[in-house]
Design brief:
The complex is a heterotrimer of chains A (255), B (420) and C (308). With 420 residues, chain B is mainly alpha-helical. Chain B is 69% helix and 4% strand. Chain B folds into two domains: 70 residues; 292 residues, ABC transporter involved in vitamin B12 uptake, BtuC (Orthogonal Bundle), CATH 1.10.3470. In chain C, helix 2 packs across helix 8 and helix 5 runs antiparallel to helix 8. The chains are: A alpha/beta (255), B mainly alpha (420), C mainly alpha (308).
């Protein structure tokens, strides 16, 4: 059990009278790709928002390596090593690619104000380290050549990759991707696929994925959770999910 | 298309007639003990007519007006200056030359000019301070003058009650203003931006009310007078030393007493303070905190997801801005020798905001430029002084409509990755 | 009753009087905020203009020899509402509409410019001095023990309560029953969606500015008559107070604005009962910060759910 990274139990989110998420359980182990799928409006993004601290869940526990993180603020959760991307890319459009990467390292390089004002050697060293770290991750996602471009001028697929690189530079243990393949062409989707697998196998992190693209999910996931109307419907590996009659019903509707 | 334009123009002219005729056309007048009204004079009606005509034609030709405003050239600093490579070698020399001119200039002109220049420098300092808050961090502070007041009163009170010197009080004033900024910002900065605007507006009023009513300490509306002027390493700039045994500046250097020394000395202090603030902001913009401000302006949610504590980051901008106002306030008190709550009314906040907006939010060059215009123009056009605030207000609306980036748009220092 | 409790009763009456006018102004803030999510910074000035128009009409009609007070007041009310609403509409048209969809800071600054402009426009056209109007509605009821403390409820105060009550009722009916009112509610739920449904949201936004300005004009008339003086700077503080009331009750919520106004008015009157009256502004500001600190969504507001 030592390898259990994220353990979500009975996660429930209520907006006024609306029950958006109802008793969702999730487990993510070390070096695992876990997907959450479900029809539109099933509450997948709400689950993400609860896990990442944008919403405070009404009920339920979220344990990150034996630490309760439900109720913590969003920035505190991300500092614990749980970082997410967004359904609609959220880059700092007018800043350059490299600056996007540096903002993400803010807390690693934010020494006191005075050392920055005086450009002390320690400050310079930290800044150089941050630059190198950023350059390393840009290379990993194939964006090093675009480092000095404005982020808003990148192609959509590049923006998606930059968003992932920007998360990785914060050195997370668990990366949560909210529909990373949405709007990508087949070629870009394939690249993304390879990138996600590389993150697991080479960089040894876990990934929690929300995705509509079934072929992507089925191909790379170690475990899949299905939720419908905010309620857990099924979980298992790709084969089990494909054969589950409830899942088919939820996706295709009642016959 | 044209007929709808005509209709629009007639409609706008009609509205203007309604708006103007009652408020300008009829004037309330106290007639003995009763209230009476009287009509406007013929000239006033002519003005109303002229105003309506302006509205009518600007609506009729709104497309052309838009185009006209859009066509006003945006000064491109980069194009005006030599090429990048040359720039890096030339820049220190240019700055050095500018500083030398700033230092020599006061000895050649009249006392009045130097005094006006000092005033301008105060406004530059305030504008740059507010720029940290509004331009860099994107927070609207409508009570900036409150921190200015805190700085000024800190020095005035410390000087009056404890006889502390200007130089000792300068950092204390800034720290006090920063502390007030911190206390005010902490509850409010977690919330949406417009709350901050209104809370700072209220805070500005409260500080003024407290200063006005806390008569036993602040002297109330009478203010505090006889605030000590700054000295140079203990040398005073008075004709005679105030304290027994102290030496004055002119005695020490064996010169004849000249009251303009004091004015020039104050000017030089202001120059140094402004240079300090410019350096500070230049560094901040290139530091992680400066990038974080910009990132927060662009996308707050993304920042939070990356582990940035938005309250702390905004608070740092708010506090730094407040401390700049504290510096300016301390200097202002020293320069005037007399302060009262009159100097710290909302209009001052509005003027400082107008400087930032006119110059260009985030643009230091623009703000310096705007501060110079805003302080010197009213001096030249004294006969129009009653129209000053009206024009400021109008200017803010017009700028936001056509040039929200200001006269000299901000140019951000881009950090470049040097490819191996 | 003891002298002290009678005194408090008097303060309560005074507080509710002022509070109900705060509530009228606060509705303007809350309605605009509910729909476009922005503070109408020029709203206080609209109230001030309402007061001026009231004075002008009253002085003008009396100058023409019309002595019937009801006629004078009704004409003043109609004209004040009309002129203020026109100003309110103009503010939206000039300072907000062209800037919709830009960075939030930009319309905010433009509205502050508008507020400064309007204030100084009145300074230039009407002078910056206080203009005084002799009391029009005099008399009232006195009760309590004359030997201890006499509590008075003036006809003017009764009129303020009555007019406020009628205005609020009409507004509530308008919002809940009329077609336009329904559209207003739809807009405050989801502006973009309402637009897609074929409702002219520009019209609805303009309407909220107009309705808000009309209520501010009513407040301007009532407070103008109550205090008997007006100057170009009254809008600034009144706007700040009304905004506090709106936040107190929960910005975006109309019943909240009413409640917030009354609470604020009573708080101020009670403060004035124990401290020098200058400090009542300090207390109301302290109340604003406290509310923002502990309950940013206000008493009746619903917490904002961020869309991620």
């Amino acid at each position: 059990m030592s390898q259990l990274l994220l353990d979500v139990n009975g996660l429930t989110m209520r907006f006024g009278g609306l029950l958006a998420v109802n008793g969702v359980n999730l487990k993510v182990k070390n070096r695992q790709i876990v997907s959450v799928i479900g029809p539109n409006g099933a509450g997948k993004t709400t689950v993400f928002n609860c896990l990442s601290g944008f919403y405070i869940p009404t009920e339920g526990s979220v344990m990150l390596r034996d630490q309760q993180i439900a109720g913590l603020k969003d920035y505190q959760i991300s500092r614990k090593g749980l970082v997410r991307t967004f359904q609609h890319v959220r880059l700092f459009q007018k800043m350059t690619v490299i600056e996007n990467m540096l903002v993400a390292q803010h807390r690693h390089m934010n020494t006191n104000l005075l050392s920055g004002l005086l450009k002390t050697p320690n400050y310079r060293r930290l800044e150089k380290d941050a630059m190198n770290h950023a350059a390393h991750w840009l290379e990993e996602v194939g964006l090093l050549a675009f480092a000095n471009r404005e982020a808003g001028n990148l192609s959509y697929g590049q923006q998606r990759r930059l968003e992932i690189a920007r998360c990785m530079v914060t050195q997370p243990e668990l990366l949560m991707l909210d529909e990373p393949a949405a709007g990508l062409n087949p070629n870009e989707t394939k690249e993304l696929d390879e990138l996600i697998i590389k993150l697991r196998d080479v960089h040894e992190i876990s990934i929690l994925l929300i995705e509509h693209d079934m072929s992507l999910v089925m191909g790379i996931s170690d475990h899949i959770y299905v939720i419908a109307q905010g309620t857990p419907l099924a979980d298992g590996n790709a084969e089990q999910i494909k054969g589950n009659p409830d899942v088919i019903k939820a996706y295709l509707g009642e016959e | 298309m044209t007929s709808s334009k005509l209709y629009n123009a007639i409609f706008a002219a009609g509205i203007s007639l309604i708006l103007a005729s009652l408020m300008i056309g009829i004037k309330l007048d106290t007639d003995g003990s009763t209230l009476a009204v009287r009509g406007a004079t013929a000239t006033q009606w002519m003005w109303i007519g002229g105003g309506i005509a302006v509205v009518f034609f600007s609506q009729l030709f709104s497309a052309q007006v838009d185009a006209l405003f859009g066509a006003i050239p945006k000064p491109n600093i980069k194009a005006m200056l030599p090429q990048d490579q040359k720039m890096t070698t030339l820049k220190p020399w240019l700055i050095a030359a500018l500083i030398v001119v700033m230092l020599i200039w006061p000895f050649m002109v009249s006392r009045g000019s130097v005094d006006l220049a000092t005033l301008t420098l105060i406004y530059i300092m305030l504008g740059l301070g507010l720029n940290i808050v509004v331009g860099l961090a994107g927070l609207l502070d409508l009570g900036f003058v409150a921190f200015y007041a805190v700085g000024a009163y800190t020095y005035a009170l410390l000087s009056q009650y404890f006889g502390m010197s200007f130089w000792a009080c300068l950092p204390i004033s800034a720290a006090m203003a920063a502390a007030f900024g911190f206390l005010l910002g902490f509850p409010v900065l977690r919330l949406r931006g417009d709350y901050l605007a209104i809370v700072t507006l209220g805070f500005g009023e409260i500080i003024r009310i407290l200063l006005n009513n806390w008569t036993s300490i602040t002297g109330g509306p009478n203010g505090i007078s006889g605030i000590a002027k700054p000295g140079l390493f203990g040398l005073e700039f008075n004709r005679r030393a105030k304290e027994e045994g102290a030496v004055t500046f002119h005695e020490y250097f064996n010169m004849d007493y000249d009251s303009s020394y004091k004015v020039i000395f104050l000017y030089l202090i202001a120059v140094i303070l402004v240079i300090g603030v410019i350096y500070l902001i230049n560094r901040l913009m290139r530091m992680p905190i400066g990038r974080a401000w910009e990132a927060l302006r662009e996308d707050e949610i993304a920042c939070r997801s990356l582990g940035l504590n938005r309250t702390a980051i905004k608070l740092s901008a708010f506090t730094l801005g407040a401390s700049t106002a504290g510096f300016a306030g301390c200097f202002f008190a020293a320069r005037q020798g007399f302060i009262s709550p009159e100097s710290f009314v909302f209009i001052e906040s509005a003027i400082i905001l107008a400087i930032v907006v006119l110059g260009g939010m985030g643009s230091q060059m623009g703000i310096i430029f705007a501060a110079i215009i805003m302080t010197i123009l009213p001096e030249i056009a004294r006969e129009f002084s009653e129209y000053r605030m009206l024009l400021f207000g109008l200017l803010m609306v017009i700028m936001m409509r056509w040039r929200p980036e200001g006269l000299v748009p901000m140019k951000r220092p881009n950090l470049e990755l040097k490819q191996p | 009753m003891s002298e002290f409790s009678l005194y408090l009763l008097q303060q309560l009456i005074n507080g509710l009087t002022i509070g109900s006018t705060y509530a009228l102004i606060a509705i303007g803030y809350t309605m605009v905020y509910g729909i476009i999510g922005m503070i109408n910074f020029a709203h206080g000035e609209i109230y001030m203009i309402g007061s001026y128009v009231t004075f002008i009409v009253i002085a003008g009609l009396m100058g023409m020899g019309i002595a019937s007070l009801p006629i004078i007041l009704i004409v003043a009310l109609v004209v004040a509402i009309f002129i203020s609403s026109t100003y309110g509409w103009t503010v939206e048209r000039v300072a907000y509409r062209p800037l919709r969809g830009t960075n939030r800071l930009i319309p905010l600054i433009s509205a502050i410019g508008m507020s400064i402009f309007l204030q100084n426009f009145v300074v230039l056209s009407q002078g910056s001095r206080d203009v005084a109007l002799p009391p029009q509605i005099t008399g009232g009821w006195n009760f309590g023990d004359p030997s201890l403390y006499e509590v008075s409820l003036s006809y003017m105060q009764v009129m303020i309560f009555a007019v406020t009550f009628i205005s609020m009722t009409l507004l509530t009916l308008f919002i809940s029953r009329s077609r336009m009112g329904r559209a207003c509610r739809a807009c405050s739920e989801d502006l973009g969606m309402t637009n897609l449904l074929g409702i002219d949201t520009n019209k609805i936004i303009a309407l909220t500015f107009i309705v808000g300005a009309a209520l501010a004009a009513i407040a301007g008339l009532l407070l103008g008559l109550y205090y008997g003086v007006v100057n170009p700077f009254v809008g600034f503080i009144a706007g700040l107070k009304a905004f506090t009331a709106a936040v107190l009750g929960g910005i975006g919520s109309i019943p909240g604005a009413m409640l917030g106004g009354l609470i604020l008015g009573v708080t101020e009157a009670m403060t004035a009962a124990f401290f020098p009256s200058e400090y009542k502004d300090v207390v109301s500001f302290g109340l604003l910060v406290t509310i923002l600190l502990f309950r940013p969504s206000g008493l009746l507001g619903k917490p904002e759910v961020e869309k991620v």
